[in-house]
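User: Sequence recovery, please. Input:
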């Protein structure tokens, strides 16, 4: 694709208008929205209103003026993006904490089942949390196996199959419906981590018959650094599962100040402590931006951006680590290169922000709301220049930062 062709595709792009809804800095090509979504323009005034008016002026009265319902309200908006009903999703805590709550609840759900089945090489927190969860339930164990062995690992002892829908490194995507059916055939529940899916690929939890899910607010939802996360529990399970973090906000009547815990009905029981309203304001601004977005247009453009980037990579002899089939991948593209870290740093020095994942993955988020074909063209020409000039061999680019 030439630069002129890229411009023509941008001009004809039905999502083009969304770009102006983000405050992207000049001189930066942002290909890391899969790790931290950029600032929506509406977020700054929303945060200012939260601090200045809601907190500053309305003070504690704000709890009855929209704060206390924020977890359910924002959850309901996220539900529309993941094929769930509004009363099946709530915003709370972090993805890690939500994983813990749901994994322990799933392990306690059927005393005859003791095992969490998951994938080795999954995003580390998922496996770390699973380890912690089995430590909290007598007899429970974690069986993490390579992708090719998951199917055989699901058996009559499996309580829950924990899968990350889109792999954080390679962007490989599980077929949610068929894996859910396989888990159900063995009597197990499924827990889908949607961190790299929500806002990236079409998700239809209820059509797939999914049981449980969690997802991240600060990636494709653009909710701000460390934004609250969300969790989904299918309605049929809601009264049968209970959170191990039995905090007062999940109580049936928190302001009765009772000694004994009694879980709220519905999704409220997954709240633990008081939610951060400052963080909720950022998340709601990010989620609201998605309200009118045509998800199919996002998927179509994501696939086109991928193909464009994959062709650039092929010309540069980079090994693509992501699946060719758009139905089988998420919305990022990864290349393998022995100097992936230095390449990533050299790109950042030239204003092209992607990221590196140990040991050899160079990863670029393809976010159709604010990224266009000319952006990918420009990123590709800078990548070509860095590779052919050898600029990435500068020792300064080998210096590891704390966050990669
Ligand atoms: C980003 C991500 C998380 C994030 O977890 P935090 O608790 O927000 O740090 C969890 N799981 C997956 C698969 C992710 O990609």
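Assistant: Recovered sequence (404 residues):
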């Amino acid at each position: 694709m030439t630069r002129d062709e890229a411009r023509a595709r941008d001009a004809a792009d039905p999502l083009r208008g969304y770009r102006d809804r983000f405050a992207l800095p000049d001189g930066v090509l942002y290909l890391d929205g899969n790790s931290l979504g950029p600032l929506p323009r509406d977020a700054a005034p929303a945060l200012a209103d939260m601090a200045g008016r809601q907190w500053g002026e309305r003070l504690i009265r704000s709890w009855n003026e929209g704060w206390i319902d924020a977890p359910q309200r924002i959850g309901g908006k996220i539900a529309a993006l993941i094929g769930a009903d509004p009363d099946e999703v709530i915003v709370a805590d972090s993805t890690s904490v939500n994983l813990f709550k749901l994994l322990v609840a799933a392990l306690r759900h059927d005393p005859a089942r003791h095992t969490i089945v998951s994938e080795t090489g999954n995003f580390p927190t998922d496996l770390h949390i699973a380890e912690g969860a089995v430590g909290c339930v007598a007899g429970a164990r974690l069986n993490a196996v390579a992708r090719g062995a998951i199917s055989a690992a699901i058996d009559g002892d499996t309580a829950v199959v924990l899968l990350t829908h889109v792999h954080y490194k390679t962007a490989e995507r599980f077929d949610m419906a068929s894996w859910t059916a396989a888990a159900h055939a063995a009597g197990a529940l499924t827990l889908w981590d949607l961190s790299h899916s929500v806002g990236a690929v079409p998700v239809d939890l209820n059509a797939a018959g999914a049981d449980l899910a969690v997802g991240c607010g600060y990636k494709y939802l653009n909710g701000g650094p460390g934004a609250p996360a969300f969790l989904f529990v299918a309605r049929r399970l809601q009264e049968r599962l209970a959170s191990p973090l039995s905090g007062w906000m999940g109580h049936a009547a928190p302001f009765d100040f009772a000694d004994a815990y009694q879980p709220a009905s519905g999704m409220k029981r997954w709240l633990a402590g008081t939610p951060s309203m400052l963080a909720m304001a950022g998340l709601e601004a990010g989620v609201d931006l998605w309200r009118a977005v045509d998800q199919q247009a996002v998927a179509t453009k994501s696939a086109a951006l991928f193909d464009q980037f994959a062709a650039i990579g092929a010309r540069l002899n980079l090994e693509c680590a992501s699946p060719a089939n758009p139905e089988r991948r998420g919305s990022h593209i990864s290349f393998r290169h022995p100097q992936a870290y230095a390449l990533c740093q050299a790109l950042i020095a030239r204003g092209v922000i992607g990221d590196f994942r140990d040991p050899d993955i160079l990863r670029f988020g393809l976010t159709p709301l604010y990224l266009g074909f000319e952006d990918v063209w420009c990123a590709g020409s800078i990548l070509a220049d860095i590779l052919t000039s050898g600029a990435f061999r500068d020792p300064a680019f080998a210096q590891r930062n704390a966050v990669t």
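The chain has two domains: 3-40+294-398, 46-288.
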